């Protein structure tokens, strides 16, 4: 945009700045100017600008010619006729349909052509040139549109050759301006007219594409969608607003402006990240919501950063003003949790939309400071709401994502989230993105914060149209918002509104912007605000009077004053007022310390096992891979023996929850088969594309839906998405699986900012399960560790506090902690811990280290009896061999967690130390089972206690468990470490060294 400004201002002399593009007329000065701008061009950024005149655009002239030739071969020049007759031309699949308002060229009485005679080649050339110009405006008009209210020529912006490229082949003179030209089917500027004088064509194009709106859409592959957009912007009169509509915009703008002014007056030294310079965002959001509600939307889920957030809560969501003002008062909280700063909090409001008279639910999702991190969370929440409402096309529930200009182009998660937008199991059927583009990021100019001309270019990857608009033109903004809402309702695809404004103050209200942007701010100081500009306009045109303008403002100030007085009477802030995802009814009548049983009837296990191990009912026609037939047969054999391996244990958990009406959703890279080829939930017909069978969807006729979906290759966005999904409905088991546990670190801000701390900050719960393949199996520095130490470091239980022992010890611990970290060694325990997620009377995230080689380990199997009624999750699995049976003889107790248990037992057998050494598995590492560790230690009174782990000493569980062991043992006994030394890397890349290290630790641990 800025580049366009440079070119534009270079090319325009003040005299030439007329309504239509007279400055394009062939004249020495404009030619010289064009040369100058071309010479000044340093780099051309976007493909549309780079497209030479005779490339992409040519296709449309040829299409037009071809259409005309099809209707009447004599209507085109003989050379075209010869060309089409030679069959050299193949019409493209998206060939523009001939529209009602198109006429054959012969219908025109062009200059010298007489009667029905074929037009001469100049006439044809001139028509082609006009078509080229129309297309150039459509492609490149946005480059020279008046988008920037400040009209700044920032020095980084090379002279743009757009003016030249739009009119590269412009060969008309003044004398041609009144000539009538037939309009091609790819423009709507004519309205009902099939032809227009050249002057009018240019005038209209200039107004549509180079005024206060810049539409970027010609990269979209769909002709239907391009035409849809052309029609919405080109049709004459689309920007005409009624006096009522104008007054509504003014009233909304007054509120948006008044809100910031009121806060500035009352809390002048408080950070609020005001919206000044882009206040139009509030009426813009309201317009999007109005139009969408009119088109059937009932629930809107929004994600947004700091800028203008309080204003959005107040004026878009209509959150009570006194609740907002209370946040400024520095009051104590009335409820538990650590809370968050006011411009991060979420909200949920159900109210009547007064414009459409329909009920609407509005949620703003709470978010951390980490810009854009909330995007996928909003998408997941939206998707879940659509799912539970049966809104398969996204007609009732939609999301709006609001972005800052610097963050939108700088943060990679925007791109990752965009790439979910059209995936069958992740789409929200179109998101409207609104960029509050104040042309600055904190103190950094766009020229230093991005390498693309627009901050919105990322959206081009998903073919989303981008509507740039000058934020000082309220009517242009409202039009764009209306089109965006209609676009979403029509095509159910993403689109972007780029509100180009400015930032009147510093980054926050305490910052001094003149330190870093002196020239920009000199300009801003002199610039009238949008409300005043619009009020002046409406007064000048007689839509309202100056008194009316004043009275609307005074009325809103009164409302604020009343709320301010009310806020002063508050003594506490209530975090619950800011909850974005209420779970109505879930907690009601529940004993908060009672967990439902997780064992199920054996016949249920058998039923699920049989279904899970059977081919589809139409097995005769459904050709299954031979290897999978063997897998199914092996499963069947296990079911007959009433034992389960890992995959079967997982299926038992899923199947039984589905039976109980609990929706199960498993998502992540390659989860359908499973990274380690153990899961195979989706069987593929070997001969028919897309024919699949998923037995877990066919367990019971009245079961809940099961969804398993391979995700895009993203952790940040997909984990965020699943977290958002899990926030919507407590009665669902939502699981995200990493390909290998290590990769979860690319989603670290979702883990840190949302999963581990969401409940504490935002009183919002989530029962999300993270499955993280973990284990030192000689696979090298990656693919070995899920970095369990990091999760444990974030666990909020106190290492020095042994909670009071009682029957409710375990559940109370779970209730009080921020999340659960576990590493199960048996399919039964895996099954129980998954089911316990739902059996709990509250929701906690579960971080689960999952196995790799154990998936096929002959000993890692569980009898059905450990999953059936009466059985439950074991936080600790005691030694139940000779050592456990005769504890007083035991010389050493080895505590461990995870797969190393199987190596330790093997070594113990080899060394025949079964009676001397007990091995105790800590299956739930956090919250730490203080009570059971104490019990185990007491059992082996005379034994040495060690903790053995395969991870390096500064990794794995050691640093977490060590102080807690001491607390559990009341510091009366010690526990020593056995395992690898400290390391910078997670694992060696050398297989030989891996084996050496493993043997050393096994020998150390299994020795007396
Ligand atoms: C991931 C992340 N990195 C850095 C920051 C620090 N930060 C806060 S606001 C800001 C500038 C944001 O600019 P923009 O996106 O244009 O929004 P604006 O404040 O201009 O509305 C930065 C760098 C952050 N909050 N999050
Ligand atoms: Mg900005």
UniProtKB/TrEMBL annotation:
Mitochondrion as UniProt keyword: yes
Cofactor(s) the record lists: thiamine diphosphate; Mg(2+)
Reaction catalysis annotation: N(6)-[(R)-lipoyl]-L-lysyl-[protein] + 2-oxoglutarate + H(+) = N(6)-[(R)-S(8)-succinyldihydrolipoyl]-L-lysyl-[protein] + CO2
Entry-linked NCBIfam families: 2oxo_dh_E1, PRK09404.1, PRK12270.1
Gene Ontology biological process terms from the UniProt entry: glycolytic process; tricarboxylic acid cycle
Residue ranges occupied by any Transketolase-like pyrimidine-binding domain in the UniProt entry: 644-857
Keywords on record: Glycolysis, Magnesium, Metal-binding, Mitochondrion, Oxidoreductase, Thiamine pyrophosphate, Transit peptide
Pfam families: 2-oxogl_dehyd_N, E1_dh, OxoGdeHyase_C, Transket_pyr
InterPro entries named among the record's database cross-references: 2-oxogl_dehyd_N (IPR032106), 2oxoglutarate_DH_E1 (IPR011603), DH_E1 (IPR001017), KGD_C_sf (IPR042179), ODO-1/KGD_C (IPR031717), THDP-binding (IPR029061), Transketolase-like_Pyr-bd (IPR005475)
SUPFAM superfamilies named in the record: Thiamin diphosphate-binding fold (THDP-binding)
PANTHER family: 2-OXOADIPATE DEHYDROGENASE COMPLEX COMPONENT E1 (PTHR23152:SF4), 2-OXOGLUTARATE DEHYDROGENASE (PTHR23152)
Protein name as catalogued: 2-oxoglutarate dehydrogenase, mitochondrial
Single GO MF descriptor: thiamine pyrophosphate binding
Transit peptide is among the record's keywords: yes
EC number: 1.2.4.2
Main subcellular location: mitochondrion
One GO CC term, this protein: mitochondrial matrix
Function text: The 2-oxoglutarate dehydrogenase complex catalyzes the overall conversion of 2-oxoglutarate to succinyl-CoA and CO(2). It contains multiple copies of three enzymatic components: 2-oxoglutarate dehydrogenase (E1), dihydrolipoamide succinyltransferase (E2) and lipoamide dehydrogenase (E3).
